[in-house]
Design brief:
CATH topology of the largest domain in chain B: Cytochrome Bc1 Complex, Chain C
CATH superfamily of the largest domain in chain B: Cytochrome Bc1 Complex, Chain C
Strand order of the largest sheet of chain A: 1-2
Number of helices of chain A: 9
CATH architecture of the largest domain in chain B: Up-down Bundle
Number of helices of chain B: 16
Helix content of chain B: 55-70%
Order of helices and strands of chain B: HHEHHHHHHHEHHHHHEEHH
Strand order of the largest sheet of chain B: 1-2
CATH class of the largest domain in chain B: Mainly Alpha
Oligomer: heterodimer
Number of strands of chain A: 4
Number of domains of chain A: 1
Largest sheet of chain B: 2 strands, antiparallel
CATH superfamily of chain A: Cytochrome c-like domain
Radius of gyration of chain A: 27 Å
CATH class of chain A: Mainly Alpha
Largest interface: A-B, 60 and 66 residues
Structural class of chain A: mainly alpha
Largest sheet of chain A: 2 strands, antiparallel
Shape of chain A: extended
Strand content of chain A: under 5%
Chain lengths: 285, 440
């Protein structure tokens, strides 16, 4: 009797969930970004230095005209990232001018940037950035790979724990950069708007930012939108999570230690408890 | 309780000290405390929670050394912690995911108490102290989530504090009083930081009382029957300390998997965008551990006596937690452990499912369709939440009072030791009860 009620209840609940899922998939929704292969996914995944360096090049030559990258130059030579040499970073920083001061006379002055300075941004404030971009402020790029996602839905989000899938942000940005298409005939796209297959609502202020051959790679990698977007997304994944490599390496050691420790504790526990005589009371020492 | 030996220090120094402050005796009483020998691993979550509280306080104090409670700097200071402070990424991740782990452990601890009847006589005060700890934890976690000052921080605080406008007469003033202004701003952030720092120590105090009460009435156990003789117990140390350690390290492994491999699993992408009071995120939702209560908050549909529905939502939400405090008197069954209550076992399962579904409702937009027939929405998320909110309260107000009167419990074992001997088979030589092998 009770099992029958339980079975009925669980069937009803399952039906409710399925109805919800089915409903989500009907109607004209934004397609889910396809999952890409990333060198940094999974428990042992690390960044590809060459890819990060190419990604930085794409950021510098294309994205940086509108999007901010609020990290200091020195990050570019730190371990676990692009790992340029310190000399390279120093030379790179010197190409930029930053405002400093006030000096002893009370005046602000310009000087070449140093590795400790943040990468300068073209606009003084968000309002200025918005005004120069059809009223839509280009989002800051440092944390973009973590700040963007798409709905995984039940039960995928639960399965993600076991598959360690957590690249919703990178997959979404990659899909977006490759999602510029001709709009459907019945959709009106206003001036200053562009159609994008993966943008929620399909209307995005940013015009197609990448085109084949736009950035010249020196390492022989293909100079295609596909490759550019893959590289910039890898770079953004690093800027959003610069401790990824250190995190996974330390985590591996911590888990090995805890695993061994658990084994030892279990052994001691089993031994202690097996010595209990269940017929007799146990005196504390 | 023969395991309890009176503490008599042998060294002169210890005797001198003990006669002035009997703290060694207290420690001795902790170590020799008689615990039922049949406690299962669900009983180790109390120890896990104590360690989690200390861990949250330690990581929190270090984070507070680097965090800046300024609306213009807060978001950036959290990033600075993650990027520039030595092992800051680890501390921040431990603290943020620690809140999640704390709630996982506390919910397991509570459902264990619910299943094995740990709230029943004589543990009513112990249980009510636990409910107070839960309330304090929720307040602490809510304010802590505002501190990183991301979009979900600011908008979550906006939505939740807005509900207080529903309080009659003083609502509008209460809102300004809570926020320290008309919107979530500098005053709000500063007071939330201050209170977020204070409340863990209040929790610490109530935990002290909780453990004190435990040491007065003793542990409940999976059979729910009281300790009768010395045969029923083992001293806390080394038997429970080693068992707690095993569980704690297993829990640490679970915890470490998220810290090191999926640090953002429980987080919200929108909280990686700095709070902007002019730009509302698409879906505002609280952290997962508040979702069932958030669903109850949004579920109440009616206006009554000229008071707004949100007020009843607010009452229902606080009521859903406050009702736990009355549990010892709402449950009329004299049997503690659900193992001997076949009908309640089913209702307990339904209650767990109801909580899970409420959590699901809380995570979804209210107008999302759940059931459609012929293109008409028969049931939306609000409707689903209403059904299970009703069930949540019915569990406490109808099922528990009535079930105790009509249910026919199974036969209880004579003692804890008996139940162990029957189940564990340790009382007889290994293999004595097994069927003889036919081969060989």
């Amino acid at each position: 009797m009770t099992t029958r009620i339980a079975a009925l209840a669980s069937a009803a609940i399952l039906a409710l969930f399925l109805a919800g899922v089915a409903n989500a998939e009907s109607g004209h929704e934004t397609p889910k970004p396809p999952a890409q292969k990333w060198s940094f996914s999974g428990p042992f995944g690390m960044f590809d230095r060459a890819q990060l360096q190419r990604g930085f090049q794409v950021y510098r030559e294309v994205c940086s005209s509108c999007h901010s990258m609020n990290i200091p130059f020195r990050n570019l030579s730190e371990p676990g990232g692009t790992e340029f040499t310190e000399a390279q970073v120093k030379a790179l920083a010197a190409e930029y001018k930053v405002q400093d001061g006030p000096n002893d006379d009370g005046n602000m002055f310009e000087r070449p940037a140093q590795p400790s300075d943040k990468i300068p941004y073209n606009f003084a404030n968000p309002q200025q950035a918005a005004a120069a971009n059809n009223g839509a402020m280009p989002p800051p790029m440092r944390l973009l790979a973590k700040a963007r996602t798409y709905e995984r839905g039940f039960p995928l989000w639960l399965i993600d724990v076991f598959t360690q899938y957590q690249e919703q942000g990178p997959d979404y940005i990659y899909a977006l950069l490759n999602g510029y298409e001709e709009p459907p005939k019945d959709m009106v796209i206003d001036a200053g708007q562009n159609y994008n297959k993966y943008m929620p609502g399909h209307k995005i202020a940013m015009a197609k930012p990448l085109n084949d051959g736009q950035v010249t790679y020196t390492d022989g990698s293909p100079q295609t939108v596909e490759q550019y977007s893959r590289d910039i997304v890898a770079f953004l994944s690093w800027t959003a999570d610069p401790s990824l490599e250190e995190r996974k390496k330390l985590g591996f050691r911590v888990l090995i230690f805890l695993g061994v420790f658990l084994g030892l504790l279990l052994y001691v526990k089993k031994k202690l408890w097996s010595e209990i005589d269940y017929e007799k009371p146990i005196k504390a020492h | 309780m023969s395991a309890h030996t009176k503490f008599a220090p042998t060294s002169k120094t210890a005797q001198w000290f003990e006669s002035r402050l009997p703290i060694l005796g207290v420690a001795h009483e902790f170590l020799t405390f008689p615990t039922p020998r049949n406690l299962n691993y669900f009983w180790t979550f109390g120890g896990i929670l104590a360690v989690m509280l200390v861990m949250q306080i330690v990581t929190g104090i270090i984070l507070a050394m680097h965090y800046v409670p300024d609306t213009k700097l807060a978001f950036e200071s959290v990033q600075a912690i993650r990027r520039d402070v030595n092992f800051g990424w680890l501390l921040q991740s431990m603290h943020a995911n620690g809140a999640t782990m704390f709630f996982i452990a506390v919910y397991v601890h509570m459902f264990r108490g619910l299943y094995f009847g740990s709230y029943k006589q004589p543990r009513e005060v112990l249980w009510i102290l636990g409910v107070i700890i839960l309330l304090l934890m929720m307040a602490t976690a809510f304010m802590g989530y505002v501190l990183p000052y991301g979009q979900m921080s600011g908008w979550g605080a906006t939505v939740i504090t807005n509900f207080f406008t529903a309080i009659p007469v003083v609502g509008a003033d209460a809102l300004v009083w809570l926020r320290g202004g008309y919107t979530i701003d500098q005053a709000t952030l500063n007071r939330f930081f201050s209170l977020h720092f204070l409340m863990p120590f209040m929790i610490f105090g109530v935990v002290f009382l909780h453990i004190w009460a435990l040491h007065v009435v003793g542990n409940n156990n999976p059979t729910g029957i009281s300790v009768k003789t010395n045969k029923d117990t083992v001293p806390f140390h080394p038997y429970m300390t080693i068992k707690d350690s095993v569980s704690l390290v297993a829990f640490a492994i679970f915890f470490a998997m998220f810290i090191f491999y999926m640090p953002d699993f429980f987080g919200d992408a929108d909280n990686y965008v700095e709070f902007n009071s002019l730009k509302t995120p698409a879906h505002i939702k609280p952290e997962w551990y508040f979702l069932p209560f958030y669903a109850i908050l949004r579920a109440i549909p009616f206006t009554l006596f000229g008071l707004p529905a949100t007020l009843y939502g607010l009452i229902a939400m606080f009521g859903s937690i406050a009702i736990l405090a009355f549990l010892p008197w709402l449950d009329t069954s004299k049997i503690r452990s659900t193992s001997y209550r076949p009908a309640y076992k089913l209702f307990f399962g339904l209650f767990v499912i109801a909580c899970l579904i409420l959590g699901y409702c809380g995570s979804q937009p209210t107008d999302k369709a759940v059931l459609q027939i012929g293109g008409n929405v028969v049931l939306d998320m609000t409707g689903l939440a209403q059904i299970f909110t009703a069930y949540y309260f019915a569990h406490f107000l109808v099922v528990l009072p009535l079930l105790g009167l009509f249910e026919k419990p199974l036969k209880l074992p004579a003692s804890i030791a008996d139940s162990v001997l029957i189940k564990g088979g340790h009382g007889m030589p290994y293999g004595a009860a097994a069927e003889p092998q036919t081969k060989g």
